[in-house]
Design brief:
The protein is α+β, with helices and mostly antiparallel strands. It contains 20 helices and 27 strands. The strands form five sheets. The protein has a ten-stranded antiparallel sheet.
Length: about 775
């Protein structure tokens, strides 16, 4: 029953192509549509889940980052006040150590800023109302000469108090208070303490206002174990509290002073820090509709919290009297809600984290809160217990995720619309594909039919085929190749003998050209060989002969140079002029005759300068550079030369110029490596190098050895392409430094040849060994 369709499609490639394309498109499209429709709900549900999870992560990361940011900014404000007071405290401690603040110091210089004018007011002695600094002797101490002496001596702190106060915008009051016997006060700015304290003026500063603090400080200074635990920073923090002098809610930092000679408490410098900006920084946090932030100390007590927070967590803000100060206390652990108590315990136990708590009462709908917290740097309380304050952020979970609920409804409505739209698009696509497939199959098979007819013509030995295919794709390329192939077959069959003769003539011409080029290359090689021989001779001719090096009385000198096969530009020289010996070693870039000519220019200029009596090493280097620069420009060569010039006189060596490092081996085998990179620039690069030229000096003692070399030594490679390097050169020098200079050269070269083996040498190798007799 399938014979007719099989015959119908089997007799035409166009029909088979059309059937294949339509079947593939229809089956694939229907399967994809069914898959999308059946799984669309699962995909959207998964997307909603991922969206919810992603939003949760985003919110958690935002809250964590915001808590850390608030903690960092608040911590910076407290740290700034801490550092400023510490600076003033260290100054006061130096005054205590010198006896100035103990009542035993002599008078101060007669300067206006160091004067302490006093006048009676309310039974106390205090500074005039228009004075810059506030001074105060409480009524019980007005007749105590030691109290007056300590107050007058503390005038030295006037030099720092105003600057300390101005350095931090949160400073409310900067002051010094004397020891327990004489708690006099010097402060900035002048707030008229005698009037501000009112009835509290007669109270004892330490016993009545800050009871127990002196005992904690005394234990710190007398207990080595506590000092080792706390460190060298004795500063402590008290508060927040309502200041008795009318400064409002403040936090007090104290830097206690200690008289080491008397082993007793010597007073303290303090700073009342207003918490307005710190609290404003925290309470300014707003997220969602009712999210807020608050500040708590390490004991779980609330330092700053908006009113909504106290209502939310069910805690009361209580005023606690301690001595003559009023402290404000609100403890999360005192909440009647177990969830808040658990939250307080978790926050106290960890430095940072994220919590989810449910504040709903029994039978109420869930009221989940997201709690994020981060810690400020720890501070010390009066007993030197670490008090780590924390920034806490609370946000209702429902407010954060309410957008997800509306998203669910919108997604479900969109599902139905997309499903219907998808069905319409699929049906329209199938119709369009069917029309395109019919047209495509006709166009594609038209050129194939033409190719089939041409192939039948070739098989019948009709080679005059000329296909004109419209297709520009692979089928068109096949048609053009088929046409060219048929023409080649026709040409080969008709003109075979003529083509053989033409090919033979082409080969003859190629052979003659190769012979001519070989003759030309042979002549060029002879010219290059002669040029290299001239360069090699020039290089060796200008080297100092052994007779000259042996004539240097104070130095034992050994020299060696081995030109490379292609001849480099290595150069060294030794010249004795009067009581000075000049030495030079350098290397011209590149190889061949130009490198040798530039080397000869350098040798001639160096010899002329040395013989002319020029002793200014920097001038020698600058003149050498100028000569080489102008000559290199004249001969139009892109080359330069590294060159180090050394002057020896009476055991002293002066080095100038940039080249390889200079190695010095002392008599005990110690090696010194002197880098010349900062002593100049390669010569011939720039017209002027004055600003880059510098000198290096060293001294040679009897038996010391100095080794100069070119890069052909350290960069020589073995068969494994490993370089000899400075470490191997240093080892060879250390092993042979007790030998005469000539034998040191032989030993170093023996080690170098043993290292490179049979490997070809591509660069000149030069050594100059100088040993102090």
């Amino acid at each position: 029953m399938f014979t007719a369709p099989r015959t119908f499609f089997g007799q035409s490639f166009q029909r088979k192509l059309l059937l294949f394309v339509l079947s593939a498109v229809v089956i694939t499209t229907v399967l994809q549509f069914l898959y999308l429709i059946n799984n669309f709900r699962t995909i959207t549900d998964f997307a909603l889940q991922q969206n919810t999870a992603g939003m949760e992560r985003t919110v958690e990361e935002f809250l964590a980052n915001y808590a850390q940011e608030k903690a960092a900014s608040s911590g910076l404000q407290i740290r700034a006040a801490h550092d400023n007071l510490s600076a003033l405290g260290r100054t006061a401690q130096q005054l205590v150590d010198s006896g100035v603040l103990t009542g035993a110091a002599a008078g101060l210089p007669d300067l206006a800023i160091l004067q302490t004018p006093l006048e009676p007011r309310n039974g106390a002695l205090t500074s005039p109302a228009d004075a810059t600094y506030d001074t105060f002797i409480p009524p019980p101490l007005v007749d105590d000469p030691r109290a007056r002496s300590i107050l007058e001596s503390s005038a030295l702190l006037n030099l720092s108090m105003q600057a300390t106060f101005a350095s931090n915008q949160n400073n409310k009051f900067i002051y010094f208070v004397g020891d327990e016997a004489d708690p006099v006060t010097r402060a900035y700015p002048n707030i008229d303490l005698a009037t501000a304290l009112g009835d509290s003026a007669s109270l004892h500063f330490w016993d009545d206002f800050f009871p127990g603090t002196v005992a904690g400080w005394t234990r710190y200074f007398r207990d080595p174990a506590l000092r080792a635990q706390v460190g060298d920073d004795p500063l402590t923090i008290v508060g927040p509290y309502d200041d008795a002098a009318g400064q409002g809610i403040v936090l007090t930092m104290f830097y206690p002073l200690w008289d080491a000679r008397e082993d007793r408490f010597a007073g303290a410098v303090g700073a009342d820090i207003k918490l307005d900006s710190v609290i404003e920084n925290i309470l300014s946090f707003k997220v969602a509709r009712s999210g807020f932030a608050f500040l708590m100390n390490g004991k779980g007590e609330v330092v700053a919290m908006p009113e909504t927070g106290f209502q939310l967590f069910g805690i009361d803000l209580q005023a606690v009297e301690q001595g003559s100060l009023t402290f404000y206390h609100g403890d999360l652990a005192s909440s009647s809600r177990p969830a808040v108590q658990q939250m307080a315990a978790a926050i106290r136990a960890n430095q940072e984290g994220l919590l989810k708590i449910d504040l709903a009462g029994e039978g109420e709908a869930p009221r989940r809160e997201l709690i994020s917290y981060a810690s400020l740097d720890p501070v010390s309380d009066s007993d030197y217990a670490a008090d780590r304050w924390k920034i806490v952020i609370a946000v209702p979970e429902a407010e954060v995720f309410e957008v997800l609920t509306s998203t669910d409804s919108a997604v479900n409505a969109e599902r139905s619309r997309i499903s219907l739209l998808s069905l319409v698009i699929v049906l329209g696509s199938l119709l369009l594909v069917a029309l395109i497939s019919v047209r495509f199959s006709r166009a594609s098979t038209r050129d194939l039919r033409a190719l089939a007819g041409a192939a039948e013509g070739i098989s019948a030995k009709r080679y005059d085929v000329d296909l004109s295919l419209k297709s520009r794709d692979e089928i068109g390329q096949l048609g053009r190749a088929f046409t060219a192939m048929s023409r080649e077959i026709r040409d080969y069959t008709v003109n075979l003998e003529a083509k053989v003769a033409a090919r033979t003539a082409d080969l003859k011409r190629a052979s003659d050209e190769i012979s001519r080029l070989n003759d030309q290359l042979r002549g060029e090689n002879l010219r290059l060989g002669a040029e290299l021989d001239v360069a090699r001779r020039l290089q060796m001719m200008v080297l100092p002969p052994e007779l000259e090096t042996n004539a240097v009385r104070d130095l034992d000198i050994g020299c060696f140079m081995r030109p490379a096969d292609e001849v480099g530009g290595d150069y060294y020289d030794v010249l004795q002029v009067g009581d000075a010996v000049y030495m030079g070693i350098g290397d011209v870039t590149g190889h061949g005759l130009p490198a040798g000519i530039i080397m000869l220019m350098a040798q001639t200029a160096f010899l002329t300068l040395a013989q002319s009596g020029e002793r200014d090493m920097e001038r020698i280097m600058n003149v050498l550079n100028s000569v080489l620069y102008h000559n290199i420009v004249r001969i139009q060569e892109d080359k330069n030369m590294t060159l180090a010039v050394l002057q020896y006189r009476q055991h002293e060596i002066v080095i100038v110029g940039q080249h390889e490092s200079v190695l010095v081996c002392r008599t005990g085998g110690e090696i010194e490596v002197i880098d010349t990179a900062d002593l100049g620039l390669p010569l011939g690069l720039e017209q002027e190098i004055n600003e880059f030229v510098a000198l290096q000096r060293l001294r040679l003692n009897p038996g010391d050895v100095m080794l100069l070399y070119t890069d052909g030594v350290t960069e020589a490679e073995n068969g494994a392409r490993q370089q000899f390097g400075i470490p191997s050169l240093v080892k060879s020098l250390r092993d042979s430094h007790t030998l005469p200079a000539g034998e040191i050269v032989d030993r170093v070269m023996a080690d170098l040849y043993a290292f490179i083996g049979e490997t070809q040498i591509y660069d000149d190798i030069s050594l100059l060994v100088v040993k102090q007799r």
